[in-house]
Design goal:
The protein is an alpha/beta fold. It folds into two domains: about 20-260, Type I PLP-dependent aspartate aminotransferase-like (Major domain) (Aspartate Aminotransferase, domain 2, 3-Layer(aba) Sandwich), CATH 3.40.640.10; about 265-395, Aspartate Aminotransferase, domain 1, CATH 3.90.1150.10. The protein contains 14 helices and 13 strands. Helix 5 (about 120-125) packs parallel to helix 6, helix 10 (about 265-285) runs antiparallel to helix 13 (about 375-385) and helix 12 runs antiparallel to helix 13 (about 375-385). It starts with 16 loop residues before the first helix and ends with a helix.
């Protein structure tokens, strides 16, 4: 694998040089006022990226999986019932974590390639007269299938049922890249990580808690120590952490969130949509389709591309790495061997995306898949030439 080529996996993503340098910093005293100059601006910026005015932001030395655990253990008790749809690998893993913590999970089985069935959630919640369901789990962007679910519709379903359940959202592969409105969508806990839209190395679990979620902690009895937000609150109030923080990553987060806000969140989302649409047009030109069942479900951060029946799509990923030094994502779970994934999020440009499309074409031609060299590149080029970047340059 070449370290000079951009990666096209859906995380970790490419790291801008300025952020890499921000992470690579000298040791400082993490109990000094200097650390507060890193910590508090980073938390404030995360809150803005989440589109929240009041969320309590917690940043743990961990990953998105640790963020899931933090959400559960700080708000729920053994035996509590939660509602979730299983429509991909990452929703499945969150469900598994719930069960390992002794929670009672009501699972709505959903075809991989489909989004969260909000109407089904509404029916289940409406039937739950005793309000046994304490939380609704929603994966905003299912990284395994390239499917974006409508979180606003999930919130409307909860409200239409008149149900008090908390809404937890996995935004690991969406926050910082696609439209996300914590306050506007009534999200109680938003979970993400450092290695995707924030363009950092893996190592931080990043969460936003609503006031309702914070209050739930008073009665939650699931065991928690490392992920206890009560300890973290006390640490933040004293300008530090209850244990040793990942100072370099936090310094990088401060810069990364500042870069996103300086670009403008709407511009960030438009850039991701433009790059993703170019990839999708290339896929169409190849005569292939996406795992996502319909255009309204298309993710702007990752495309899971179906190959022809009977062909092992993992061969594309393997050959791209060994022959061209380029990383694509393999299929996971139920779509393993059926799709390969092109990640198009984080630090990426139209020109970088074209290099990934061109590589995928070469690999598929090498493997005899009948893809005409230049077909997908041309389709993406035509779109990018007339997209937002071209219009902006002409103005």
């Amino acid at each position: 694998m070449s370290m000079q080529n951009p990666v096209f996996i859906p995380g970790p993503t490419n790291i801008p040089e300025a952020i890499r340098k921000a992470v690579d910093m000298p040791t400082i005293d993490h109990r000094s006022p200097l650390f507060g100059e890193i910590l508090h601006p980073a938390r404030d910026n995360v809150r803005k990226v989440l589109r929240s005015d009041s969320a309590e932001v917690f940043i743990f030395p961990s990953t998105g999986t640790g963020g899931w655990e933090c959400a559960l253990t700080n708000t729920l008790s053994p035996g509590d019932r939660v509602l979730a749809a299983r429509n991909g690998m990452f929703s499945q893993r969150w469900i598994d974590m719930c069960r390992r913590h002794g929670l009672d999970v009501e699972v709505v089985e959903t075809p991989w390639g489909e989004g969260i069935p909000a109407e089904r959630f509404e029916a289940i919640l409406s039937a739950d007269r005793g309000h046994a369901i304490k939380a609704v789990l929603a994966t905003h962007n299912e990284t395994a299938t390239g499917v974006r679910s409508d979180i606003a519709a999930v919130r409307r379903a909860i409200d239409a049922a008149g149900h008090p359940a908390l809404l937890f959202v996995d935004g690991v592969s969406s926050i910082g890249s696609m439209e996300f409105r914590m306050d506007g969508w009534g999200v109680d806990i938003a979970v993400t990580g450092s290695q995707k839209g924030f363009m950092l190395p893996a190592g931080l679990a990043i969460l936003g808690f609503s006031a309702k979620a914070m209050a739930a902690g008073a009665t939650a009895t699931l065991p928690r120590t490392f992920f206890d937000i009560r300890d973290m609150e006390k640490g933040y109030a004293a300008n530090g952490y209850p244990y040793t923080p990942a100072v370099g990553l936090l310094n990088g987060l401060k810069l990364a969130t500042g870069m996103l806000l300086d670009e403008g969140l709407e511009a960030v989302f438009a850039r991701h949509h433009r790059i993703a649409e170019g990839v999708r047009r290339a896929v169409h030109a190849w005569g292939l389709g996406l795992c996502a069942a319909s255009p309204d479900l298309y993710s702007d951060t990752v495309s899971a591309i179906r190959t022809t029946e009977g062909f092992d799509a993992t061969r594309i990923v393997t050959l791209a790495a060994s022959k061209y030094g380029v990383a694509f994502g393999t299929g996971l779970g139920e779509v393993a061997g059926k799709v390969f994934r092109i990640g198009h999020l984080g630090s990426l440009t139209d020109v970088m995306a074209l290099s990934g499309i061109a590589t995928a074409e070469m690999v598929m031609a090498d493997l005899g898949l009948g893809v005409r060299l230049g077909s997908g590149v041309a389709a993406a080029q035509e779109y990018y030439r007339h997209g937002a970047s071209a219009k902006k340059a002409a103005a």
